Amino acid sequence: MLFAAHDIAGGYGAIHIVRNISFELDAGDTLALLGRNGMGKTTLLRTLVGLADRFAGGVAVDGKPLPPRNPRALARLGVTFVPDDRGVFARLTVAENIRLAQLAAYGETAPDVYALFPDLKRRMLQPAGTLSGGQQQQLAIARALATAPRLLIVDELSQGLQPSVVEDLARALIEVTGQSGLALILVDQNPKLAMRICDKVMVMQRGEVVASGSSAMLGSDPRFFDLLIVS
Ligand SMILES: Nc1ncnc2c1ncn2[C@@H]1O[C@H](COP(=O)(O)OP(=O)(O)O)[C@@H](O)[C@H]1O
Ligand SMILES: [Mg+2]
Predict the structure, then answer these.
(1) What mean pLDDT do residues 128-155 have?
(2) Residue with CA nearest ligand 1 atom 16
(3) What is the mean pLDDT of the chain?
(4) With a 6 A CB cut-off, is 206 part of the ligand 1 pocket?
(5) What is the model's pLDDT at position 146?
(6) Rounded Cα–Cα distance for residues 156 and 229 (Å)
(7) Which of 8, 15, 17 is the pocket-test mutation for ligand 1 (most atoms within 8 Å of CB)?
(8) Is residue 231 one of the residues assigned to a domain?
């Protein structure tokens, strides 16, 4: 088992936001985490990677339990998180952003991120802050992949982006997860997109998982989409 979350409860300070969350990922597993706004997706991701408080439950990599609130411990084990604000270094160039990630790499077999995102190759010398939103998301994903992760966690992949660039991002993620053992947890507001990229799905409502299963099975269940409709 690459990654296991067991009975997680998490939140911020005294505020409990997510609870009773359990799931496991093997190498190569891809999981879409869906749910309407405010249901706790970001908080769950942040609890898992140690950026929010874990009140109960355990997170384990390779069966070894991890301390709470310790994002570095997870990064050192090959778990890389792309936050919803993308978090690129605005004043550094594209190439410098990538280079820094390579220096912090967990593994040795990072994908060729410039081959994956030719747009970035053309913009290597451009400061990241001057890129479009789509290019910044490409850079955020490229940086994460340059660390040669075993598990990539992406919060809000397509938020605010043009459909054409979203398609490029989806293609890149499908390619890297398909040809390596890279595992993925993906949060996105577009269930069809997320389920095209990921084999499994979990739906959150008010901090808890209310549905989970394979993308193929849940995607053909009309009740599933009701869980995602803003009412
Ligand atoms: N730093 C924080 N402190 C307290 N409450 C927060 C914080 N961040 C988010 N929340 C609350 O947690 C709930 C879940 O938010 P979030 O995890 O961002 O949901 P999602 O990512 O599904 O939109 C919301 O009610 C939100 O207001
Ligand atoms: Mg969120």
Answers:
(1) 97
(2) 40
(3) 95
(4) no
(5) 96
(6) 17
(7) 17
(8) no
Nearest to 56 by CA among 21, 9, 13: 9
Please give the backbone phi and psi of residue 21, each rounded to the nearest 5 degrees, phi first.
Answer: -100, 120
CATH, residue 183:
3.40.50.300
pLDDT of residue 229: 81
Residue 164 tokens read as 């054409």
> Does pLDDT of 231 surpass 70?
no
Question: What total number of domains does the chain contain?
Answer: 1
Q: Which region holds residue 48: left if phi is over 0, alpha if psi is between -120 and 50, else beta?
A: alpha
Q: The tokens 């999981």 sit on which residue?
A: 31
* Structural domain containing residue 26: 3-226
Using only C-alpha atoms, what is the Rg of the chain? 17
Ligand 2 centroid to 131 CA: how many Å? Answer: 23
Question: In terms of C-beta density within 10 A (0-12 exposed, 13-18 middle, 19 or more buried), how is residue 118 classed?
Answer: exposed
Tokens of 110: 């990072």
Amino acid identity, position 113 = V
Judge if pTM exceeds 0.85: yes
The pLDDT assigned to 199 comes to 97
